[in-house]
Design goal:
four-stranded antiparallel beta sheet; alpha/beta; 278 residues
Length: 278
């Protein structure tokens, strides 16, 4: 990755929140790989070989009258990703129980102290959807449960589930960088018994879980929901996030048609997370 040529887009966003969060989500769907939040907005990076003149055309928020967003871009020959994260990744604490920090941060006096080096992977706890998923996990009994973290990103949710007593945890991501990053973070947190796989929902055939966690964008969730439901044991839970609050009705209808019942809904700014049971 270090030798790849990147395009760096610098966005100024007003109002800053939730504008920056929405913009990052949309850019991620468009193929941007890494984001560094700034006091004025965000810097987004994409490999030059994946870039096109029309890359921003599907970004809805750029056309929205609710936000004022300006940007410029430049070609960047090399990026030291570790240095970028070290400058911009601040630790967080969720629910006074779980800290998520980088290796260069001091440890926290909390029950679950998780060390994450995210590099270009998604899942530091800062994003609204990951934050809500962590809240769900903290409020759930994972003792002796079998767990799937689908779209695992950095592996942070799988790690927390294991630290909360899960007996068996599998983590899956279609992105090679996320797969490798999850392996690193799982080893770093001494959760080596978590199994990590590179791939998509086709890997789930014949598997069963007590809890499935899926923090993925709406379209992938809707496409793969039937595969998730087929993997649920009796009295199992399905945690979903990665979508806007306005998408909840559609997702709830899909899940109800598959025999699931909505138990809890969480909101954080414009984002939502849903817990279903069977």
């Amino acid at each position: 990755m270090a030798d790849s040529i990147y395009i760096g887009y610098t966005f100024k966003v007003s109002p800053l929140q939730p504008g920056t969060e929405i913009l990052i989500a949309e850019l991620g769907h468009a193929g941007f790989e890494s984001f560094v939040e700034t006091p004025e907005g965000v810097i987004a990076y994409i490999q030059q070989r994946h870039h096109s003149k029309s890359i921003l055309e599907p970004i809805y928020i750029l056309k929205s009258k609710e936000f004022k967003i300006t940007y410029n871009f430049e070609i960047i020959e090399q990026i030291n990703w570790n240095a970028e994260w070290e400058k911009n990744f601040n630790p967080i604490v969720v629910g006074n129980q779980c800290a998520i920090r980088a290796p260069f941060h001091d440890s926290f006096d909390v029950k679950y102290d998780i060390i994450i080096e995210p590099k270009m992977s998604f899942g530091t706890g800062h994003h609204e959807t990951t934050h809500m998923m962590i809240e769900y996990i903290l409020a759930t009994d994972f003792n002796n449960k079998s767990v799937l973290d689908m779209g695992c990103g950095t592996g942070v949710l799988a790690i927390l589930a294991m630290k909360k007593g899960a007996l068996n945890v599998e983590a899956i991501d279609v992105d090679n960088w996320c797969y490798l990053n999850s392996l690193e973070n799982i080893s770093r947190n001494d959760c080596k018994q978590i199994s990590v796989f590179e791939g998509d929902a086709s890997l789930l055939k014949g598997k069963k879980f007590d809890v499935i966690i899926a923090n993925i964008n709406r379209n992938i969730l809707l496409n793969d929901l039937s595969a998730y439901v087929a993997c649920l044991n009796e009295n199992a839970s399905l945690f979903l996030s990665g979508f806007y609050d306005s998408d909840c009705a559609l997702i709830q209808t899909y899940c109800q048609n598959l025999g699931l019942e909505l138990e809890i809904k969480r909101n954080r700014n414009n984002w939502a997370a849903l817990k279903f049971v069977n």
